[in-house]
């Protein structure tokens, strides 16, 4: 398992959290996404290596971006 904690930009409410968890969680090989609204972070766990570009691609069409 691979795990990473990323900074999330653009979150303002619990609905934002749900959208991010749903979008990233739908990606192939992602087993868990835990978004912390207060800290503006997302912990992502995957069975394969985690590609930041693919994570951002999953958020296309929203105003959210992730950085490390």
UniProtKB/TrEMBL annotation:
Gene3D superfamilies: 3.30.70.100. Keywords: Metal-binding. Residues 2-67 form the HMA domain. InterPro entries: Heavy-metal-associated_CS, HMA_dom, HMA_dom_sf. It comes from the Bacteria. GO terms for molecular function: metal ion binding. This is HMA domain-containing protein. The lineage of its organism: Bacteria, Candidatus Roizmaniibacteriota.
């Amino acid at each position: 398992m691979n795990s990473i904690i990323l900074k999330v930009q653009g979150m303002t409410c619990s609905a934002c959290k749900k959208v991010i968890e749903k979008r990233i969680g739908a990606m192939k090989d992602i087993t868990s996404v835990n978004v912390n609204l207060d800290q503006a972070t997302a912990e992502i766990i995957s069975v394969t290596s985690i590609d930041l570009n693919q994570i951002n691609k999953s958020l296309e069409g929203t105003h959210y971006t992730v950085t490390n």
